[in-house]
Hints:
The complex is a heterotrimer of chains A (497), B (139) and C (349).
Chain A: H1 7-25, H2 31-38, H3 41-45, H4 47-64, H5 66-71, H6 81-129, H7 134-145, H8 147-151, H9 155-169, E1 172-173, E2 184-185, H10 192-195, H11 201-219, H12 248-263, H13 269-283, H14 295-319, H15 325-336, H16 345-348, H17 350-380, H18 386-404, H19 409-427, H20 432-456, H21 461-464, H22 467-496
Antiparallel strand pairs in A: 1-2
Helix pairs in contact in A: 1-2, 1-4, 1-17, 2-4, 2-15, 4-14, 4-15, 4-17, 6-12, 6-14, 6-17, 7-13, 7-20, 7-22, 9-20, 11-18, 11-19, 11-20, 12-13, 12-14, 13-14, 13-22, 18-19
Chain B: H1 2-5, H2 17-36, H3 38-42, H4 44-54, H5 57-78, H6 86-103, H7 109-131
Helix pairs in contact in B: 5-6, 6-7
Chain C: H1 2-18, E1 32-37, H2 45-61, E2 64-68, H3 72-81, E3 87-91, H4 94-100, H5 109-112, E4 113-122, E5 125-130, H6 138-146, E6 151-155, H7 160-175, E7 183-187, H8 191-199, E8 205-209, H9 210-217, E9 227-232, H10 236-240, H11 252-258, E10 277-284, H12 289-305, H13 307-314, E11 318-322, H14 324-348
Parallel strand pairs in C: 1-2, 1-3, 6-7, 6-8
Antiparallel strand pairs in C: 3-10, 4-10, 4-11, 5-8, 5-9
Helix pairs in contact in C: 2-12, 6-7, 7-14
InterPro entries (chain C): Bug_dom1
Organism (chain C): Thalassococcus halodurans
Protein name (chain C): Tripartite-type tricarboxylate transporter, receptor component TctC
Amino acid sequence: MFEILTPMFLSLIVGGTLIGIIFGAIPGMTATMAVAVCLPLTYSLGLENGLALLLGLYVGGISGGLVPAILLGIPGTPSSITTTFDGYPMAKRGEGEKALRIGIVSSFVGGIISLAILWLFAPTLADFAIKFSYVEKFLIIFFALTVMAALSSDMLLGIFSGVLGIFVALIGTYDITKGGNGNMRLVPPGTEYWLDSGFSLLPVLIGLFGLAAILEQAEIGVPKGHSLDEIDVGKKSGFSFSIFKGQSVNLTRSSLIGTFVGILPGVGGSAASIISYTNAKTFSKTPENFGKGEPAGIMASESGNNGLTGGALVPLLSLGIPGDSTTALLIGAFTLQGIQVGPLFIGNNPGTWDAMIIAMLIANIAMLVMMYVAIRYFALVVTIPKHILFPVILMMCVIGAYTINYGIMFDVWTLLIFGLFGWLVVKLKLEVAPFIIGFILGPSAEVYFVKSLESFGDVTIFITKSWIAVVLWLLIIGSVTGSIMLSRRAKQNAATS
Amino acid sequence: MGQLTQVTIDFETSHLLFPTIIACVLGLLGLAIVIRDRAKIATAGTYWSGIWQSMDKPRFLGTIVLTLLYFSLMVPVGDIWPNTGRGFLFCSIPFVFLTGLLFMHERTIKSILPLAVVSLVGPVFVWWLFTYPLFLTLP
Amino acid sequence: MKLTRRTLLAAVSATALLAQPVTAFAQDLPRNIRMVIGSTSTGGDTYQNSAIVAEALSEKLGVNIKVDAVGSSEGFKALSRDKRGTTIMIFHDQAYLGNLYGRQGYDDPFENYAVGPTVAINPGNAYLVPANSPYQSMEDILKAAEAGTKVRVAIQPGGVSEIGFSAMKNAAKVRAPGSEENIVAVNTGSQSDKNQAMWDGLADVINGSIQANEQFTQLSADDQKAMRFVWITARPATLGQAPEAGMGGTTRDDMLAYASPQTSVTLDGTEDFTFDKEFFMLFNKDMDPAIAEKIDTALSEIFAEGAIQERQKASFFIPNYLSIKDANEHLLKKRNTYGKVIADITGES
């Protein structure tokens, strides 16, 4: 089992993880892109070594996203959106380094827990995952959507923003590859040429979070100085491991949620951290602190999205079905080498299976060590003068938008449209966080909702389908009542003070 | 009872079902907001003119204009040398420089020089990285 | 062992290619060519195929070729915009099937673009049933439809995944007019959705592929995920070129048993319906034909050398080079055959 641990194997994992972190940390570059550009290399590297590189990229890419999410408020990858909710407020009040450390450790915990689950239970879990039909998947998405209410400071405006996000996500064709009929809707006449596939997630995301933030700065005249004046590089970060005390339930639960969402084909990578975050807030004793710089929020988000890494490999290796867009590329790596993936993969290829587990383990450790060491350098980003940092971020956003779908100029225009939209949304007192969550989950919500009715022909199916559905309803009700109570309490507090 | 809950979805028109539901929900929520916040909405004019007045117009509008130019020129410039990414390269250098200049407060040689270096090295490095090692298409 | 052999092979073929006079063709060709493909996945069959072809072509012609997985709709847009030959496309039968099924974003490729040479076949298109299904064969399925039993088939509508389903309906109609009504589509999306539709009991038959579903056919019959092939749509001559060992636990002979003529889904009562997913090039209609000519010649030489076939077969593709002229003839004929099938079954229902 350990003869695969050649210097080549090890250095590919570490190198892959490093490149992945860099990709993840640059707004607009994603883990998927890192894996995609390195995929052709694996042909000459051979299977085990190729996988070592790709898995390193995957783990690094998912983890690196927390850096700009915390320091700049721009999610480096779609799955780190929820990290911005608490990470950026922490950074703004001078706890950037602390937030980074929390995020990195949580990422590591999520990665390791999900890896353990992958290693021990992969085939069993895959058998459980296929019990989730359209109905259960819709309910999971619905549960994730309830976080919209919890995230908004004004519930009515927040939910409106979220539903608007869903609405905007539906523009374009009802995607045939997801089960739709390929017909166009909600496309204004005359724009069919550009809008036939709707707006892509990544340009929308970096427009809303990146360009819009820069426009807001431009509006107030780009005040002199650094983007975070109170950043505490080199000073005492105020971080100690005691912060994780009392959070082991949150960390474990979030990692498990991330893992499980990864296992469900089609629910999607970004949903993992959103659902973990929703859960953490629902079960928290201090839900009112979420969104204002609550360390537990970062823990939930980061352990959730790294939990995805092991989870998404479960259906890949035990059903031959990818759990997210990055693992979809790994199928390519296998077929390039003439290896079949499917329910017999693990049994037929024990050597490769072991190599993958070991590579993931090493990648997680490498990620932890490298990111921990690099915190100081990450934090330097915010010491760059704004008049240099902002134009460069804009340029990187353009690259990210253009390359995400391999060269589509409309994605760059999407960036501008949603940059302006993001600026306008804030002025209209609407809320960006629910909007983007609605936008991300909208298409899946549609397919699973419509397909549930199409297949079962009865609206009661949402309750009667299975015990899983009932459990999901309980979670949904818990999350909604929690948000309502929270908003009541906030109003009372406002009234008394 | 059983009849009431039954639905038949025609696949050919199923693309309209969910958007219709969402549009209705959106309309209702919008209506609720209009009713609840009617007082605020009535004063929207002053709110927006306040925003317009306090805005740093050169920087805000300048950013938008520069971005528009940047995006519009990238493809035509790139078409002169097809599939080489030079449209991106040759448009990014002035864009980064001019935007930086726009955002800068004291435009002294000492502060312009680092910007000039970054606006030259940044795009060139990124262009090289994407064109050669990463082998991705740029405009 | 496999790896060493393959690495060696790659090294040898690379050296052989380098020895060629690489600049001989390059004068009129654009130096940087963008090859768009009709799929957005860089892990899928279209991308793999295109990458193999792009690499061989770029070595042969001494030009840079980048493969961009922009998807069908964006791919066609990029192709129509560029008359200079700096953008070319690789796609498969979906290009005209999407048009035949009237899907949005699909123009007639023979009219709006110049159809170029074919390069490979993915022979994997297949139909499967659950392991415990009462249907042992296509014959059973068609008989069931004749007897008035509804047979639900999970497909992704509007193209390659639907054509076999259309053929089933057509065969049912040829055998017993009216029975095609009993073969109904369950419209789903990706392979995972189709499998799930089977496991949820929503479909009796699913569209799948040898590559993605073979391992499910090797599971013990009491496994809830177990499946059986009932039909592989490839032409027997195509499957005959597949490696003898086949794939996983299914040998080439096993596969042939599910394909025509042993498994017959009739086209018109005499001939069998077959479908091979063929990958071919598309050019801008107004592109200089000399460029297409150069690419075609280069491809014919690449295939004559023989190294590309090894790479294609290693990824379970069947090498399938047809020159521009032959490809047009062949694909047009194929299109017309399927056009008739689709028209026949939609004309009445």
